[in-house]
Amino acid sequence: MEWAKMCSQAHFNxxxxxxxxxxxxxxxxxxxxxxxxxxxxxxYDPLQQRIARHSGVSEECVVAATGTSMANHLAMAxxxxxxxxxxxEHPTYGPILDIANYLGAQVKRFTRKxxxxxxxxxxxxxxxxxxxxRLILLSNLHNPSGALIPAETLRAIGEMVQRTGGHVxxxxxxxxxxxxxxxxxAFPIGQALARDNPYIVTNSLTKVYGLSGLRCGWIxxxxxxxxxxxxxxxxxxVNAAHPAERMSLMAFNHLEQFRKRARTLLATNRALxxxxxxxxxDLECFRPPGGSVVxxxxxxxxxxxxxxxxxxxxxxxxxxxxxxxxxxxxxxxxGGDTQNVRTGLERxxxxxxxxxxx
Length: 358
Ligand SMILES: Cc1ncc(COP(=O)(O)O)c(C=O)c1O
Prior knowledge:
It is a single chain. The chain is of the alpha/beta class. It is built from 12 helices and 14 strands. It is globular and about 60 Å long. The model has no long low-confidence stretch (mean pLDDT about 95).
């Protein structure tokens, strides 16, 4: 995260994974609807209702959080005691691993292999899971590869966890980038499996909708667990910034507009990415069905040295694979402005050409 904040800046930024931010001039702000402070209680009721409706769950299953980041932390902290066993996908989004370690969990891993398109193999989880496994952590779409976990896999994992006990946390911050079919949301799949839903889900308006600054995140959990998480949040944030809650409500009122923006931008930029990838023999790449990232492998030379050359000489950034424990890869994000992405990819090509001659 420190690298992302301090070192990923370059004129041509292919390091970010979300949609380019919505500027205030394009945000449908209704000044008369703003307020500074809300009366007491847990969450802001109108926003709770919108998140619940958006997610197809009852309000008692929704806990508001400061972005998916805090949602992940709260959910994990509510479920894990020091020494508890957790099972985390490899590769993973770094902070997930860091939170587990911070909470003193005993971390075990299962692999999503590049060679098999980063699929989640229930058999891999079956090998690693035990009666001691308190929590399994997945991202859907997968960060860094963009791979989709289909509903039948989620069902199989849910059934497994029902037999062994514990929960599955799915970070769905990229899932609504699937526009052409119904995304496989984990929470309703879990609800259909058992009265005590084995699934917990985290999400926000950050990545798909380009609204990171609102920090509008949430957790979906069974009502008993949701209440526990609200109480735990009293140790952390207590309340959200109310103007941000009000603006998040405005965002939900215009979500279709932001969704269209994302869909159009990603379709345009994906075409650029595809022609870039088609032109490169020095990259091996799984191409996911949607989303904003890919995670190619450099076939020759040291990928870390390549990322350095790209940044220093070509003023273009990607995320080095070491942040995902796969140093021969790097992550390309295509959620930026089209002109920026186009030039970034051209520079990536030029840097690859130069690197190949070394
Ligand atoms: C998988 C995943 N979860 C959570 C986040 C952070 O989301 P938010 O900005 O909503 O805190 C990121 C950001 O890169 C991410 O990739």
